[in-house]
Write a structure and sequence with these properties.
GO molecular function: NAD binding; NADP binding; oxidoreductase activity
Number of helices: 13
Shape: elongated
Structural class: alpha/beta
Radius of gyration: 20 Å
Low-confidence stretches: none
Order of helices and strands: EHEHEHEHEHEEHEHEHHHHHH
CATH superfamily of the largest domain: NAD(P)-binding Rossmann-like Domain
Family: Belongs to the HIBADH-related family.
Keywords: NAD, Oxidoreductase
Helix content: 40-55%
CATH topology of the largest domain: Rossmann fold
Strand content: 5-15%
Pfam family, one: NAD_binding_2
Organism: Bordetella genomosp. 13
Distance between the termini: 57 Å
CATH class of the largest domain: Alpha Beta
Largest sheet: 6 strands, parallel
Mean pLDDT: 95
Length: about 300
């Protein structure tokens, strides 16, 4: 694995989403150096042809483009700037692609600190869920300079079928916040619709089939609604992570003076779900909470 080879890429963070993205890069013919804080997560990818690296710094010695998929701002800062971090090991001219969902303000700070070392950052949060990550069919919202985006585009196209540059650093994170606000509003609407149906003795599964044929059709109604009908909350995208994402979106909105009442309501529902032991379940569990509050669920 030659660091200057355009087919070499590092990937740090091998959770539900990151492992799928790293696997997509391997299928596209990239030589992938992987690292995860819990090292056991590397094994499946190594068996598929990846190379394990003992630290972020070791990843940096193996590739000049490094992708991240980490849980929060603190984790990203530790990988970038902590002991054995990327910033101290990557040479000038390298690129970091951060697919994590973190605060736009933090992303801008990271970009500035890396730029001082001659390293470019593209914030490239993704949407689509676990299945899309595994199949390489995510949607990616990117922020960064045009030059950095152009350089990183082939790597992003290996994990996503839709890649759009939203603007400079931080713009990708803002777009992802908009995505989370939009899907949370739809989830709340679907949950309330099912509660309304049950309260009136109408089968919510039949209501779903009817709504799929009209203007209410959505990805949430197609996929997440099935979880509500089946009481299946195996993640998926965990409620704790959606809580984090929506909190970041509301903080971004507060800083900009945006009015976001629906997102605020869903955040409170997610907080209640996390407080009652559901943080590790799929975030669709907020629909169960709505049904419980409506006293409309089947026994």
């Amino acid at each position: 694995m030659t660091p200057t080879d355009d087919r070499s890429v590092g990937f740090i963070g091998l959770g539900i989403m990151g492992s799928g993205m790293a696997a997509s890069l391997l299928r596209r013919g990239y030589e992938v150096a992987v690292h995860n804080r819990t090292r056991a997560a590397e094994a499946k990818l190594v068996a598929a042809g990846a190379t394990a690296a003992g630290s972020p710094a070791e990843v940096a010695r193996r590739a000049r483009v490094v992708m991240l998929c980490l849980s929060d701002t603190a984790a990203v800062e530790a990988v970038l700037f902590g002991p054995d971090g990327l910033a101290g090991a990557l040479p000038a001219g390298s690129h970091v692609i951060d697919t994590s969902t973190i605060a736009a303000s933090a992303t801008r700070r990271h970009a500035q600190r890396l730029a001082e070392r001659g390293i470019s950052l593209v914030d490239a949060p993704v949407s689509g869920g676990q299945a899309a990550a595994q199949s390489g069919e995510l949607s990616c919202m990117a922020g960064g300079t045009e030059a950095a985006f152009d350089h990183c585009l082939p790597y992003l196209q290996a994990i996503a079928t839709r890649v759009l540059r939203m603007g400079d650093n931080g713009a990708g994170q803002v777009a992802k916040a908009c995505n989370q606000v939009a899907v949370s509003a739809v989830m709340l609407g679907v949950a309330e619709a099912f509660a309304l149906a049950r309260a009136n003795g109408v089968d919510p599964a039949a209501v779903r089939e009817a709504l799929l044929g009209g203007a209410a059709r959505s990805n949430i109604l197609e996929k997440n609604a099935v979880r509500l009908l089946q009481d299946d909350y195996k993640p998926g995208f965990r409620a704790g992570l959606m809580h984090k994402d929506l909190r970041l979106a509301l903080e971004c909105g507060t800083d900009a003076g945006a009015y976001m009442p629906v997102a605020a309501t869903v955040l409170q529902l997610l907080q209640a779900a996390c407080n009652t032991g559901h943080a590790q379940e799929d975030w669709s569990v907020v629909g169960k909470l709505v049904a419980d509050l409506a006293q409309a669920r089947h026994a």
